Amino acid sequence: MEKLVKLTIDGVSVEVPAGTTVLEAAKKAGINIPTLCYLKDINQIGACRMCIVDTGARAFGAACVLPVSEGMNVKTNTPKLRAARKINLELLLSNHDKRCLDCARNQKCELQQMCIDLGVEDVDKFKGKINEYDIDDLSPSIVRNNNKCILCRRCVAACNNTQAVGVIGPMGRGFKTQIRSPWDQPLNDVACINCGQCIAACPTGALYEKDSTKAVWNLLADETKHVVVQPAPAVRAALGEEFGIPMGTSVTGKLAAALRRLGFEKVFDTDWGADLTILEEGTEFIGRLTNKGVLPMITSCSPGWIKFCETYYPDFIPNLSSCKSPHEMEGAMIKSYWAEKEGIDPKDIRVVSVMPCTAKKFEAKRPELSHNGMPDVDEVITTRELARMIKEAGIDFVNLPDEDFDPVLGESTGAGVIFGATGGVMEAALRTVYEKVTGETLKDVNFTAVRGTEGIKEATVKVGDLDVNVAVAHGTANAAKLLDSVRSGEKTYHFIEVMGCPGGCVTGGGQPIVSAQKRMECDPKQLRAAALYNEDANKPERKSHDNPSIMALYKDYLGEPNSHLAHELLHTTYTKRPKYTK
Amino acid sequence: MELYRSHVLVCGGTGCTSSGSPKLIERFEEQLKEKGLDKEVKVIRTGCFGLCEAGPVVIVYPEGTFYSRVKVEDVDEIVSEHLLKGRKVQRLVYVDHKTHENSVQKSLSEIGFYKQQMRVALRNCGVIDPENIDEYIAFDGYKALAKALTEMTPEQVIDEVLKSGLRGRGGAGFPTGKKWQFARASQADQKYFVCNADEGDPGAFMDRSLLEGDPHAILEAMAIGGYAIGANEGWIYVRAEYPIAVKRLEKAIEQAHEYGLLGNNIFGTDFNFDIHIRLGAGAFVCGEETALMASIEGKRGEPKPKPPFPAVKGLFESPTNINNVETLGNIAQIILKGADWFRSIGTERSTGTKVFALGGKINNTGLVEVPMGIPLRTIIEDIGGGCPNGKKFKAVQTGGPSGGCIPAQLLDTPVEYDTLTAIGAMMGSGGMIVMDEDNCMVDIARFFLDFTVDESCGKCTPCRIGTRRMLEILERITQGKGEEGDIEKLQELAESIKNSALCGLGQTAPNPVLSTIKYFRDEYEAHIREKRCPAHHCQALLNYEITDACRGCTACARKCPVNAITGTVKERHVIDQSKCIKCGSCIATCKFGAIVKK
Question: Considering only CB atoms, which chain B residues are within 8 Å of A58?
Answer without folding.
Answer: 507
